[in-house]
Amino acid sequence: MKALIVYAHPSPASFSHAVKESLKSGFIDAGWEIIESDLYKMGYKACLDRYDYPTYTEEVFNIDRASTQALNDHVYDREIEIEMDKIRAANVIAFQFPIWWSTTPAILTGWLQRNFPIGFGWPDPVLSGKKVLIACTAGNNPKEELEAAVKLFARSFEFMGAKILPYIIITSVNTSTQEGRENELANAREVARETAANFQTAP
């Protein structure tokens, strides 16, 4: 079994990175293989554009026609093809990211928009049978605001057939104590371990 961890924070010294590593450890504890997309480390291109579809030649860029042509030609930008292979291989896709300006980082939004074109994410539900685990960190944002941001992000994956697992939302990161942080990291690790251990039996 495999977990794809998509991570969207630029600093390896961040608490977000520590949460990501805790998720990774939890899956490994359960004997799972890890696939990772560290978007900032990869230098991942955040903007969807016509260059994602090498065989598209129309003067005016139309995303529906471009992605349909790519589907028919079986040709996408190589960066997209690599991520598609990771998505296909994963049983669980876990996301870790901070909430900035009440939304997901632009690089993560780009990952979503670029990697699920017509014919891959929908109408053929490539995520059917897969589960999505979302863990986010934030400063002192109201919990309801964070839940709204995560729900909006999760909606796309639910539409494409994935089961959305309960969110891990960690608030007040800037003012939390060492003990509080350690507890959050332990919880993230345990959630990942349980997600993996119960994958076949959980509804």
UniProtKB/TrEMBL annotation:
Determine if Oxidoreductase is one of this entry's keywords: yes
A Pfam family found in this protein is Flavodoxin_2
Which Gene3D superfamilies would you find in this protein's record?
3.40.50.360
> Which SUPFAM superfamilies does its entry note?
Flavoproteins
Gene Ontology molecular function, alphabetical: NAD(P)H dehydrogenase (quinone) activity
GO CC annotation terms, alphabetical: cytosol
Record keyword Oxidoreductase present: yes
Residue ranges of the Flavodoxin-like fold domain? 1-191
UniProt entry keywords in alphabetical sequence? Oxidoreductase
Assigned protein family: Belongs to the NAD(P)H dehydrogenase (quinone) family.
Record-given protein name:
Flavodoxin-like fold domain-containing protein
Q: Which organism is it from?
A: Blepharisma stoltei
